[in-house]
Amino acid sequence: MDTMSKASFLIGPDPDNPRLSTTVEGIDHEGQPVTTRVVTEKPLTLYLNRQEVVTMMTIGDYPDLLAVGYLLNQNMLSSDDEITGVDYDEELEVVVVRTKRETNYEEKLQKKVRTSGCAQGTVFGDMMDGVDSISLNPDARLLTSWLYTLTKAINTAPSLYLEAGAIHGCVLCREDQPLAYMEDVGRHNAVDKIAGWMFMNNVPAHDKIFYTTGRLTSEMVIKTAMMGIPVLISRSGFTAWGVELARSIGLTLIGRARGKRFVALAGSERIVFDMDPQEVVDEDRKHRRKSESKRETG
């Protein structure tokens, strides 16, 4: 599999959507005029029933999935909640998620403001409360042939990153097949879109693989595990707490996955070495992402 088109995903990036990027004029290092594409960034205010929850900065695609996934990953929605509607007003830049269950998270939201002071922050303490109850599929496996196929396919797929940069991507996979590919200006938004898509489509998690272009931080580990996904892969590196949590939870954690190379720091018992790395062709330079550089920012 050399490349993948948008049609290869059940849902994926649309780099040709004119509302997701724009052209900007400037000059280059030699003072010459240049025109380049940059991604858009716009506010989206989320309501859960009648309560305002947060205003997020996002590229603007899949607002319904972003809203549902955000609420799931903040423990404001549970797996057995019934969503009666998701209403999006593009002009007002508002999305409203309606549930059959009455909700009131005033105290939780006050705590969020006190701890983070930022609308983009997360209620990290609440996320940690659920870590002890996480149980991931011990029988899940990751064949190295799947890993090599996935990293190449995802990295060469048409995307906003390859067109304009300054964006993160997350991909839900099963075996060697990418299923859902989401991008956004923040990696957490991309994660939330995947979570929302899984919830809205009743997609099971026990046999899935999660791929991200961002760093393998503690929050990325927790979000992946809370979704029930047993394997997390990234092109980028690790944080010490991310590794510690992955080991305690039983999550397979693989970073620096580029071409034939990768490093596993947790859950290596799930890895099946079924392919000789020497048979893998290194990445074409034009498809190398920013994590190839010495600086790894997430």
CATH class of the domain at 142-292: Alpha Beta
Secondary-structure element series? EEEEHEEHHEHHEEHEHEHEEE
The CATH superfamily label of the domain at 142-292 reads Cytidine Deaminase, domain 2
Uncertain runs: 1-7, 113-124, 290-298
Assign the CATH architecture of the domain at 142-292.
3-Layer(aba) Sandwich
- CA gyration radius, whole angstroms: 19 Å
3D structure, described in words:
With 298 residues, the protein is an alpha/beta fold. It has a domain of 151 residues: Cytidine Deaminase, domain 2. Helix content is 27%, strand content 28%. The chain contains eight helices and 14 strands. The strands form four sheets. Strands 9-8-10-11-12-13 form a six-stranded mixed β-sheet. The protein has a four-stranded mixed β-sheet with strand order 4-3-6-5, covered by helices on one side. A two-stranded antiparallel sheet has the order 1-2. Helix 1 crosses helix 6. The longest helix is centred in the middle third of the chain and has 14 residues. The two termini are 28 Å apart. 39% of the residues are buried.
Q: Could you list some keywords that capture this structure?
A:
alpha/beta, 6-stranded mixed sheet, 4-stranded mixed sheet, 28% strand, globular, disordered N terminus
